[in-house]
């Protein structure tokens, strides 16, 4: 039996990854280390909590001792780091310190433990990162980010993720630690914390509350269904070449106003619910990922269609009020300016 250490597995993408991974790999034990910030919820993995190959440990990747103990005790063969502060707005509005701490120092602790505690045993260390490290593209161009695009992060969130990535690359170059970095575009699906655009708009629309849209609403994101991303990350884990970067995009560019309108259409609500608000500072105009490398080298392509999965995603938020109530309750503990 092999062991994979997954950090941040009680969040949105990590929980989908663990569920999919346990199903696909009966020869693996999964250890999930998660601090349970407001964004993490162990109930996201309620269905696997009794699985004997699954173990949840509440702990902080910023705490060196915790991380060292976990590596010593479980001796993981593989590591995937999902743990991060992930909401850009919070990094802008006064909470950047915890982004720096979890997204940089936390990554450093994991790399150190992988290098020193595991002593050559780690077969692959996957750092899950974001297209936001590349900065912003212009609206009227066809240019996309490739793995060779220079980093140009423009929010404290993106800068903290970029720094974490660079530490990973340095541990490959200096010590030969078999690190792979994935950059995905915007994910959507069930279990996404409702401060994020799609669940936020869906829940507001369900209550006939206005959908606050930044600026002119024309900012474009490349949307990928979460299970497409987790599958690509799994491929990067087993087939990715150490030291390499893989961009995982959905080939699905949609303006934020387009997202708002589609959600309203699915819920049969009027466009008049859209309310334009002042733009967010440093708001990146467009993200788009060139996913040709991951398709060619890892044999992956997205399987899920946007319209169908968006409708299913919205239905999930409508049908899970207890999950929403628990998320909203946790949001109150972190002084959020968001009202869901
Ligand atoms: N959601 C997206 O669209 C997207 C896109 C690209 C990349 N990413 C990256 O994917 C990863 C997962 O994103 P997500 O959307 O699932 O985030 P999320 O906020 O839903 O989940 C993050 C999880 O990490 C845990 N965590 C946070 N700080 C921790 C710490 N110090 N120690 C241990 N656990 C900690 C939280 O409790 C939570 O369970 C992040 O690294 C993010 O940067 C996300």
Automatic annotation (TrEMBL):
Residues 5-313 form the NAD(P)-binding domain. Its EC number is 4.2.1.46. Pfam families: GDP_Man_Dehyd. It comes from the Bacteria. It catalyses: dTDP-alpha-D-glucose = dTDP-4-dehydro-6-deoxy-alpha-D-glucose + H2O. GO terms for molecular function: dTDP-glucose 4,6-dehydratase activity. One of its GO terms (biological process) is nucleotide-sugar metabolic process. Its cofactor is NAD(+). InterPro entries: dTDP_Gluc_deHydtase, NAD(P)-bd_dom, NAD(P)-bd_dom_sf. Keywords: Lyase, NAD. PANTHER family: DTDP-D-GLUCOSE 4,6-DEHYDRATASE-RELATED. Belongs to the NAD(P)-dependent epimerase/dehydratase family. dTDP-glucose dehydratase subfamily. This is dTDP-glucose 4,6-dehydratase. The lineage of its organism: Bacteria, Candidatus Yanofskyibacteriota.
């Amino acid at each position: 039996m092999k062991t994979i250490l997954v950090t941040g597995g009680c969040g949105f993408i990590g929980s989908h990854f663990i569920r999919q991974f346990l199903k696909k790999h009966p020869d693996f034990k999964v250890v999930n280390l998660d601090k349970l910030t407001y964004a993490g919820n162990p109930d996201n993995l309620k269905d696997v909590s009794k699985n004997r190959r699954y173990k949840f440990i509440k702990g902080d990747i910023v705490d060196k001792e915790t991380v060292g103990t976990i590596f010593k005790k479980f001796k993981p063969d593989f590591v995937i780091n999902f743990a991060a502060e992930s909401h850009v707005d919070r990094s802008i509005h006064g909470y950047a310190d915890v982004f720096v701490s979890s997204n940089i120092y936390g990554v450093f602790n994991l790399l150190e433990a992988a290098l020193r505690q595991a002593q050559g045993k780690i077969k692959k260390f996957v750092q899950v990162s974001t297209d936001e490290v590349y900065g912003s593209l212009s609206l009227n161009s066809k240019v996309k980010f490739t793995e060779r695009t220079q980093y140009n992060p423009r929010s404290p969130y993106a800068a903290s993720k970029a720094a974490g990535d660079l530490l990973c690359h340095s541990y490959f170059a200096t010590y030969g630690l078999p690190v792979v970095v994935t950059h995905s575009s915007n994910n959507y699906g069930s279990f996404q914390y409702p401060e994020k655009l799609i669940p936020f708009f869906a829940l507001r629309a369900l209550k006939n509350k206005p959908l606050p849209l930044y600026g002119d609403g024309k900012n474009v994101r490349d949307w990928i269904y979460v299970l497409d991303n987790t599958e690509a990350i799994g491929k990067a884990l087993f087939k990715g070449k150490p030291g390499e970067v893989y961009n995982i995009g959905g080939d699905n560019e949609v303006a934020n106003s387009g997202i708002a309108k589609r959600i309203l259409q699915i819920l049969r609500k009027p466009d008049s619910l859209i309310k334009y608000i002042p733009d967010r500072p440093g708001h990146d105009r467009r993200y788009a990922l060139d996913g040709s490398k991951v398709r060619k080298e890892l044999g992956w392509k997205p399987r899920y269609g946007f319209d169908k999965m968006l409708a299913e995603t919205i239905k999930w938020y409508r049908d899970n009020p207890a999950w929403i109530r628990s998320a909203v309750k946790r949001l109150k503990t972190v002084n959020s300016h968001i009202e869901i």
